[in-house]
Design brief:
GO terms for molecular function: L-allo-threonine aldolase activity. By secondary structure, the chain is α/β, with parallel strands linked by helices. The protein has helices at residues 15-22, 35-48, 59-70, 84-87, 92-97, 114-120, 147-159, 171-178, 182-186, 212-224, 233-245, 250-266, 287-299, 320-337; strands at residues 3-4, 52-56, 75-80, 100-104, 130-137, 163-168, 191-195, 206-210, 270-271, 280-284, 302-303, 309-313. Helix 3 (59-70) crosses helix 10 (212-224).
Length: 338
Amino acid sequence: MFVDLRSDTVTRPSAAMRAAMANAEVGDDVYGDDPTVNALQAEAVRLSGKQAALFLPSGTQANLVALLSHCQRGEEYIVGQQAHNYKYEAGGAAVLGSIQPQPIEADADGTLPLAAVAAAIKPDDIHFARTRLLSLENTISGKVLPLAYLKQAWEFSRQRQLALHIDGARIFNAAVALNVPLQEIVQYCDTFTLCLSKGLGAPVGSLLCGSSEFIQRAIRWRKMTGGGLRQAGILAAAGLYALENNVERLREDHNNATWLEQQLRDIGLEIVEPGAQTNVLYLRQPAEQAAKLGPWMRERGVLLSSGPLTRLITHIDVSRQDLQQVVNLWREFLQQQR
């Protein structure tokens, strides 16, 4: 078994989660009568304080459905240059929805400067796409958006008559890092997504949450984009187990990432600031060294996305003992390079 630090998407369901899946009561979710899917969606409503929630197969589809539900053809959303739903989702909003992204540079802390957002909003003129939506990401590259900023962005969006969406793939990591309930974060958005198949440990699935009216539109778009599943309760059971059992334990992943950061600093590696705020850590290394490191580690049972900028992510399947092994191997590798 490899120690896999490439992502928290590589987690495997535990025995207890598999048992919950095997014993799940199911129905046809396209008809709305899968009791386990309904229970999962109800739990997301309870945790978030939103009116409604929708279970989707993936985070990419959840973000796409959100954008399609917020924006019409020829309209635009303002988003960060490094945001997942702009850069890493194959241009889905533009290709499938004819929705124009307007990317802007984020500040070092991951926030989108509101002055830059204001400058990007298009005037009401036939030459321009209509600006309808501000899309934030929390966490982004492991950085937690401050609550004060989210409140400012929310008030800004009300003043500018924009909807506000949060790509919250790792939003529970943000909640745990801030020591606040989920509802305290998502009160400052109209809609948000959360991923069940990253640090929460489920094998598949994401949730989209918002108003009842919004989710009704989203159900249609989910069907149109191929996300209407039938006996989906088998999958939803894993997500429900994750929400009930695996949220608070994210703190262990954060602590492991902080520990790993210090260990790697101590052996001379360059950590990208601000370091590990959650379960994500970046470091810089020479390109030639990075090219050797990945295969060398793999031969010894460790998987890394090794490059000049290397991302390491801790998760439920990586223990402190595993990380100590990684540090020992990294030290050995560096000694061989001298």
